[in-house]
Amino acid sequence: MMKPVPPHEQFIDAVAVHDVTIDPTTGLAHLLPASFDDAYAIFLWLCALAGGESHEVFAIGDSIGGNLVHKVATQAGANDVEPLKLVGGIAIHPGFLRAEPSRFMLLALPFGSTMDHPIICPMGAQAPSLETLSRLPMLVVVAEMDLLIDTELEYSEVMKEAEKEVEVLINERMSHNFYLNKAAIELDEVTATQAEKLMLEITSFINKH
């Protein structure tokens, strides 16, 4: 079975890329979209750091970080981000909702937010039209037992209807963020196999684009 290694370290080693991990602003004094703004600020910092040299960049995030991937892709597509080229987005178990936000989520969202806030429902009525989003290839990773599977698949279908390039990977019999459960990967062959499948598909997606 696969040795449990943090997922991002696995595919970084596999595809020989450099990673930049953000530590976003959080807390009641910094409600969303503060952390999303932080992520895009880091992206712009990378643009400045590139010094005129062209570089290809992927945005990847899991859970609410998957929502962040969509947001960064939206902003990057609407602005001149040369010399960087955002060539793909990977949203792993994104936290898209079509239900009333939980108490926990309400503590993070701007006051008075509803279930259609663009951060948690980019395919909702309050969100910008997906047709304006750049044709950025997206990999959406879904766990079969995840409570968010319906909205994750809805997002994927709406993106396809808007003529976006979307690939969907479903990990059978797995739950939300299963790949972070090191004990399960060590002790359960099914979990280990699905975690390895996840890494292989991410690696393939990056190499393909």
From TrEMBL:
Coiled coil region boundaries: none
Give the domain of life.
Eukaryota
InterPro entries, sorted: AB_hydrolase_3, AB_hydrolase_fold, Carboxylest/Gibb_receptor
One Pfam family recorded for the sequence: Abhydrolase_3
Q: Alpha/beta hydrolase fold-3 domain: from which residue to which, for each copy?
A: 29-179
List the Gene3D superfamilies hit by this protein, alphabetically.
alpha/beta hydrolase
Similarity field: Belongs to the 'GDXG' lipolytic enzyme family.
The name under which this protein is listed is Alpha/beta hydrolase fold-3 domain-containing protein
User: What organism is listed for this UniProt entry?
Assistant: Hevea brasiliensis (Para rubber tree)
